[in-house]
Amino acid sequence: MGNKIRLGILGGGGDSLIGVVHRIASNMFDRYELVGGCFNPNEEENKSFANRIGVPLNRVYVSFDVLIEEELKLPVEERMEVISVLTPNFLHFPMAKKLLEKGFNVICEKPLTTTHAEALELEAIQKEKQTVFAVTYTYTGYPMVRQMKDMIRRGVLGTIQKVDLQYYQGWINPVIHKPEERAKVWRLDPKKGGLSCCIGDIGTHAFDMLEYVTGMEVKKLLADLNYLYEDNPLDLDGTVLIRMSEYCKGVIRASQIATAEENNFTVQIYGSEGSLKWRQENPNELVHLTEGLPMQVLKPGHDYLSDFSLDSSKIPPGHPEGIFDSMGNIYNGVAKALRNEVHDEGAFPTLHDGVRGMLFIEKVLDSNANGNTWVDL
Amino acid sequence: MGNKIRLGILGGGGDSLIGVVHRIASNMFDRYELVGGCFNPNEEENKSFANRIGVPLNRVYVSFDVLIEEELKLPVEERMEVISVLTPNFLHFPMAKKLLEKGFNVICEKPLTTTHAEALELEAIQKEKQTVFAVTYTYTGYPMVRQMKDMIRRGVLGTIQKVDLQYYQGWINPVIHKPEERAKVWRLDPKKGGLSCCIGDIGTHAFDMLEYVTGMEVKKLLADLNYLYEDNPLDLDGTVLIRMSEYCKGVIRASQIATAEENNFTVQIYGSEGSLKWRQENPNELVHLTEGLPMQVLKPGHDYLSDFSLDSSKIPPGHPEGIFDSMGNIYNGVAKALRNEVHDEGAFPTLHDGVRGMLFIEKVLDSNANGNTWVDL
Amino acid sequence: MGNKIRLGILGGGGDSLIGVVHRIASNMFDRYELVGGCFNPNEEENKSFANRIGVPLNRVYVSFDVLIEEELKLPVEERMEVISVLTPNFLHFPMAKKLLEKGFNVICEKPLTTTHAEALELEAIQKEKQTVFAVTYTYTGYPMVRQMKDMIRRGVLGTIQKVDLQYYQGWINPVIHKPEERAKVWRLDPKKGGLSCCIGDIGTHAFDMLEYVTGMEVKKLLADLNYLYEDNPLDLDGTVLIRMSEYCKGVIRASQIATAEENNFTVQIYGSEGSLKWRQENPNELVHLTEGLPMQVLKPGHDYLSDFSLDSSKIPPGHPEGIFDSMGNIYNGVAKALRNEVHDEGAFPTLHDGVRGMLFIEKVLDSNANGNTWVDL
Amino acid sequence: MGNKIRLGILGGGGDSLIGVVHRIASNMFDRYELVGGCFNPNEEENKSFANRIGVPLNRVYVSFDVLIEEELKLPVEERMEVISVLTPNFLHFPMAKKLLEKGFNVICEKPLTTTHAEALELEAIQKEKQTVFAVTYTYTGYPMVRQMKDMIRRGVLGTIQKVDLQYYQGWINPVIHKPEERAKVWRLDPKKGGLSCCIGDIGTHAFDMLEYVTGMEVKKLLADLNYLYEDNPLDLDGTVLIRMSEYCKGVIRASQIATAEENNFTVQIYGSEGSLKWRQENPNELVHLTEGLPMQVLKPGHDYLSDFSLDSSKIPPGHPEGIFDSMGNIYNGVAKALRNEVHDEGAFPTLHDGVRGMLFIEKVLDSNANGNTWVDL
User: Fold this and answer.
1) Is the pLDDT reported for residue C267 higher than 50?
2) What is this structure's pTM?
3) Chains contacting chain C through 3 or more C-beta pairs under 8 A
4) Top-level CATH class of D5-139?
5) Domain with CATH 3.30.360.10 in chain B
6) Nearest chain B Cα to A302, which residue?
């Protein structure tokens, strides 16, 4: 089948939402062919799912380990070139590690691992192996996010002096107020949900977006988390003071008890020469403010955009693209890297972005545990 | 490959925008497999394109006629089950006709044909053959459009008393004001562009949307078209007075000289019990007005929506879906019809919708030519 | 009291909404002093109202005729300089006529008269008397409307090629569907409401706005009105095709059965070089579209605006002003004219605007009665 | 002049913006008569200003002290009943103190004083004197703010669990980046501008709004301020972590270096049963989110609103009111208190609100100076 990239998928079977997103995204630019995988630990379901989505059963494997073993037996030109890891969070690390060690390219869902130490371990291996490794911070694929990154890179905003990101959802509110109900939510069980709920799920998206669009690193933070009830072990809400430098300050705000909010992720970046504002729920508008000029609203597909943004929308202005298209752009970025094509530095979020995300989670928890004090990143 | 629907495509090769949309849409629900087609009349380009998008060359045919001939030789269980017609407009009729006669199911781009008479001919054949035939009025696939249709069907708006649709673009403005430039625009050449430009391209979308969401038929119209220059043979802009019944009046407004508008398609339906308003450029919000109550804004994916709408979005609220997803819903509707699954009456726009669209174009031109007088549909 | 303009008011007593608006508007720029009037035909209510709002009783008159008689006895430097006519519509003409004849300046609510003939009569007298006469098309006072007018005047939009105005309300819907209820609505009784309901009330606002912002005249129109029920004598809704010139076409849409709409008045003007869009319910944003540039949103109080617009907002950007402020700007314009100060040509709507408005109403009714045919203005 | 409230004004002369706002506001409900004042320390300008705005010169005084002295000589039924203090901030305290001591009712601009101690002193006197004392936190007069207050009071949101307020302006950005320019800005000179710039000017508005709409008190805060340059002595930007109770946390964000923002003041209140969101730049929309229901947008003037909100708009829905109207509602509230009419508890911001505001400023500065630590209020 021509020169398509041979893709394998781990997890994402059944009704997995993230599975649908990755499959559609990989198809968008006609660059990938899904040649096999292990979608489900249950053998029967694994096969029937593969059958339903049209993947030949000969490369549908009973386990991750068998997949590795069998694929390595295939000649390089038939072997899976890149493998998407869509399994539960705690499996990301062992799978990614083995894939890296065996020389596979990887597309891994976020959070990259369960601890920062694990993430650093992956980074060390990748440096040695030099494979392509993407972490799917999905929102970085939107054309107007890429336009933000490009404008800031070109200095359109001057020196960044203030940053403000919000990621508000309300989905935990309906289950949090009754003790028996909240006890049953897996996401609030540290054994299943990990160290953090709100910061781990969505705070990291905001953190990654901040570093992605500004090209700067967060240097210090001070966090205040909310758990709402004494018996609730994981954070539901947090406000994180941020220092990008001594005089570039800001805030990341994340909540899953912002009642009835859907997925209200906003970015506001203020510089000495202008400002940019973007809202995920209306992703095709980018507001650009400049002192003394009318407010400008940039939209996808126009010649006035950067090539990086234009390359991230598929049809003419006025035809809304959405979250699937955003993920599609990330897959397209990975494809370019795999095929050694020229691509923008931000074409896909990297393993390093995943490492930073894990560091952020741990430092936020540290700061909160230490009485809301400053910690360095 | 399991039980996937075997899809063939005519046209849509090279950089065709509509080709991308159909391919992505057909993949969205893991229900179709693109098994072959004839993407380009140039044999070399046809093959290289097929290669690039990963379609096996053995079913990439040198011409439409060869495709028909060869596919018919295949056993029914291998033969293309449905064929998407994405060729230039004047080819829709001959291709759709032959496909119908040979018993193929068809997905055809709009406009269905170049005349109403041709459209009626197709309809007559289809009635006999009883195949599935969809016309891709893409915008009808949006979840909030389907919610509109369902709410009106359930009587939420009471008796419809006023309708108002707008479809404004600006793309012709940059080329229309210089005689030598406008003479070169194929869309304004009747030999290539057909009877109508603005009404044929976008007025029909508004007309179809009106009949789709209300479930009512337009009975009469009076049209006023604008050509801007005496030497310009095709309409650039038109306002069409509408009668749905003696006391249900309205207007369809379409323009391609609404300078710098992108794809500003809006629907406003007013009934005795409430109103609905929707805007294509922000497709995930549906405004519902009721006397004496706060304005309500409905969004995709919520339990308060109809099943028909819920079935048309793939992920939880707050994750924007767009025009590709809208087309995906239409392909999914066709898939249900092909597999004899229960599906909503509006799951995809039908051949009859295409016939109505051609009637609309002809009647608008008649009314305008007759000095802006009323004509019956 | 210094050099303040001595203002008298006719009507507007009790709970009159329009009375409040005019009183607040006249105070906004510290230029008027309300010295007297006749607020109510009932003597007792007239006095108690005057007392409540703090007008000295010595110039509160029992009738319009007495007011004229007594004021004329006063020396010119004490006499009311301008009189606002806020009485029921049918009284506008006789009052305005007498005021003009006696040399008073007038601020008259719309509609100016009940027929176009009456309006012409007033215009003839005013030409002779050379007094200041304003007709309060309130919406023309908004700073962003004035910005529109100025930008079009300066040629920013190039040649205007399409115009589209909408004025949708829903207030008649709750009363129209029951025969006994609609029979009781005074606005639908031709004896009280005049020749037209919807077109007379709000269609004229749209018509005036169109001629105000473009500086062009409507040359021809074709109207389609809706009455919803056979026994309802006055129009509830209308769509009016417009010709500003042979190739500048457009539409005015007005409705009072657009269920649950509040006061949804929008203006869209498209020219060869750009477009402007404005919405009364969010009056502090003016959208400027230009091919190839990001959408621009202009807001009041910025240096990038015209002097005419800047002069129409009182405080810095970001502090919303509203409908009272809009009327205040009209009063300020009249004040400038009365004091012979330099003022913009559009500083207030003139008697001629009122005359045009009456012509529009009559021509719309003619066109509709003649089977929706073109009529010249 | 009937029973109008006799109003005096201190300051607000010449081109004072706040003077215009107070004069228009006091006129809106026909309840006040401006009988005198001292508008300007310069005698000539004082008189010519009084003359221009039509205030009789016999009660235009050369100084504040003379005003007090002379007014006290007048019989109570002629004496100014309430005096608006619009002078520079450092004069608020001595003037308000003397006015209180002499038994005058006061309307005072914010900030109430320059220190919390002064504010407490005023409060002590007022408790003794029992006069009416309003502090003009102007934004609390908007009808939709009052609707928020009322809905929260009635329990519509359940238990408040998260609050988030933003007040972003950009006006200091153009002057801050050049040392010689920033040295000349009086607002950044501690001798003239007081202890704080950003927090004092606008952070207090957000703080007051929070306590106003929730009816709750902020218990603790932790602040992080930004000065941008080492030689700049006053804060330009600050983020303040908030505790309303152990488990009701939140954030107040204020900035005057949010480049090219106008007056972007937003309020987001999240409770266990729903949420409310409001934005000052579009003040006539109040968003109400409830889990499982469509988003609701409430607008002024509708029967579904509380009486308190309805009483704060003057005309029917769809006619925007603005910041002048908001201040008018505060003056109307004061009028009701002065006339012993029944009025809502939130009819005007009180002296106590002013005291809280001063406490907030001092505590924010303390927290920031102490290395961003928690301080109690």
Assistant:
1) yes
2) 0.97
3) A, B, D
4) alpha beta
5) 143-313+350-369
6) B262
